[in-house]
Amino acid sequence: MAEEKTRSKNTQAKAFVVTKKGDEYDLVPWSVLESYSIKDDNSDRDKIPQSKDISNEDNFDYQKFKKPQFDLRKLCDLLDYNTYHRRCCEVVAQDASGYEYNIEPIDSDEDNTESFLDQKEFIENFIQNLYTPINTTLYRFCYDKRAMGCAAIEILREGDSNSAISDLRHITVYNMRLHRDGVRILQQEGTRKRWFVLYGKNYTPDGVPFDVNCDTGEMVEYGSLKPSERANEIIWGQDYSPHNIDYGSAKVIPLVKVIYGDLSRDRYNQSFFDNYGMPSYAVTVTGDFDAGPQPGDPDYVYEQTFEYQIKQQLQNVVDQPYSSVILMIPSIEGDVGVNLQPLNIGSGGEEAGFRLFRADNRDEILAGHGVPPYRIGISIEGSLGGNVSSESSVIYTTSIIQPIKKMNEDLLNNLFYTEYVHQKRINNEPYLVSGKYLNWVFKIAEIDKRDYQQDLYNAKELFQMGAITPRQITETLGKPFKAFADPNNPLLDEYYVNGVPMKNLFMNDGTEPMSNTTYNDTLSINTNTKKKNKEASVEEIPSTETQNK
Predict the structure, then answer these.
(1) Most exposed residue of 59, 170, 234, 470, measured as fewest CB within 10 angstroms of its CB?
(2) Dist CA 170 CA 72 (whole Å)
(3) CA torsion sign, 485 to 486 to 491 to 493?
(4) For residues 63 and 524, what is the distance between their CA atoms, to the nearest angstrom?
(5) Mean per-residue pLDDT for 43-58?
(6) DSSP 494-541
(7) Distance from CA of residue 299 to its chain's centroid?
(8) 482 — alpha (psi -120 to 50), left (phi > 0) or beta?
(9) Three-state secondary structure along 322-334?
(10) What are the tens digits of pLDDT across the range 350-363?
(11) Which residues are 501's β-sheet partners?
């Protein structure tokens, strides 16, 4: 009796989750569901190895080659693991490389001289003769730098080392390593090897040029190799990093744990659904009851447990809707409560925690790349319900895109300058250059992301203030609407204030400026002047009777 009395005070509770997989229901202990939730401390993320150093399995001899801090191939793999990281790399590369380009003079006062026009023609022919469009090459170059921290453009020449450039081709760098001599680069894939030379670095300390054999990497006399044996030149670029100035540092490096945290969340959820199905109900049994034999006991029979009873009763309800649920639970003392509560997947706390975790990871990735959400198709409302895309666009353009675009333009303008001077010297032709660029420069055309409604409003305000003319409005905003400003119409060059020609506001009789008059006074004076002129003209015309006399 004493033992039973002690047991009668042993109130306990058991909780289960009813899951559905196909047409069958199963009963899963609550502890199993808890094991699949992501804790606040993200303990699983801490188990992910932090080191991404390249192993010795890549077959590069790092006694001779410079070693990247992180495995470039694994950095490429991250693009396939996270949608936001991939989209950020795409939009930054596209915005910084553009769709079109312009060739613009540095000094517009001298852009028609013979020497300057020759430089413009050189750049235009250079770009037009490329097999790959220049904007496409820049896009791939920027994409690689965003994903891996470094990128390369291969230079193809028509013949020997002194011949003109025939193409600029993007080449991937995940399987390339820089030699410690600062001149050569080795590309290695399996047992195949190919050598390259950094553009403008194939000179001895005495300034004597040399060539590099593309198969052996041997440095030989300049011009002594056939075009098929000569190593092509490489333009190498990297995002600056103080601890890795050769390969740079990708923007994704601080985000590796974030991306793997997202993968862990997906893996946990997918694993639970694959093993147990979709959680549908929560069953809680509370009270002073006999749980019966447990797994591992000699007399344990699963078909005799109340877990099995609950499962069978729920399956019976599914097969026969509106039928009763009857559970026989052995009670020691008092009542036993059974609570059956539906689970609204998508609105529960755990699911909300998953969504917040996902959103936090997304925001961290966007911040790491400096990309506003709207540029990857995500609309974020401001604190007062408004849209902050216009403010974000200005910050994104000035702090992220413009610096990258400037580096791309400088890279090509340096190349044009070097090749133009090189070809002129080889051909013993006169040339005139000043500074580090030619007098015509390559400019990436801006991608038109303007809000035309806002632009039209601004133009209207400026027009009403007499700040711009109708012709300027047409030339600036009329192109999308195919508007045309007649060059023979002088009225399009007039300035207007509130629809009145400015010269009428500041001139009385056409010669003297008006003073101490308001806008309404001016209109009144102009109106009276017109009336007086009209009356005077009428008085000067003789009547018909006078003419007859």
Answers:
(1) 59
(2) 16
(3) positive
(4) 90
(5) 43
(6) --EETTEEHHHHHBSSSSSB--S--HHHHHHHHHHHHHHHHHHHHHHS
(7) 63
(8) left
(9) CCCCCCCCCEEEE
(10) 554 566 777 888 88
(11) 496
Count CA atoms within 13 Å of residue 417 on its CB side.
Answer: 17
Query: Read out DSSP for 379-412?
Result: --B-TTS-B-HHHHHHHHIIIIIHHHHHHHHHHH
Q: How far apart are CA 64 and CA 70, in angstroms?
A: 18
Burial, 433: exposed, middle or buried (Cβ in 10 Å; 0-12, 13-18, 19+)? middle
User: Among 46-50, 126-130, 148-152, whose mean pLDDT is lowest?
Assistant: 46-50
CA distance 88 to 93: 8
DSSP E strands, 260-330: 278-289
Q: Whose CA is closest to 153, among 360, 415, 392, 348?
A: 415
Query: Tokens standing for 82?
Result: 């996270």
Q: Are 132 and 102 in contact (CB under 8 A)?
A: no
Structure tokens at 38: 């992501």
Please tell me which of 9-18, 316-325, 355-364, 435-444 the model is most confident about, judged by mean pLDDT: 435-444
Q: How far apart, in Å, are the Cα atoms of 227 and each of 16, 41, 163, 196?
A: 74, 60, 10, 13
Q: Which residues pair with 497 in a beta bridge?
A: 465, 500
Say if residues 15 and 282 touch (Cβ distance below 8 Å). Answer: yes
Q: Please, are residues 399 and 370 in contact by the beta-carbon 8 Å criterion?
A: yes
Q: What tokens does 326 get?
A: 């009857």
Assess contact for 107 and 439: CB atoms under 8 A.
yes
Q: What is the pTM of this model?
A: 0.64
126: helix, coil or strand? helix
Q: Whole-angstrom Cα distance, residue 407 to residue 425?
A: 27
- Residues 6 or more apart whose CB falls under 8 angstroms from that of 409 comprise 441, 442, 443, 444
Which of 102-116, 169-183, 370-384 is most confident?
169-183
Q: Which residues does 298 contact at the CB level (< 8 Å), separation at least 6?
A: none
Bridge partners of 234?
Answer: 154, 198
CB atoms within 10 A of CB 101: 19
Cβ proximity of 58 and 111 under 8 Å = no
CB-based contacts of 386, cutoff 8 Å, min separation 6: none
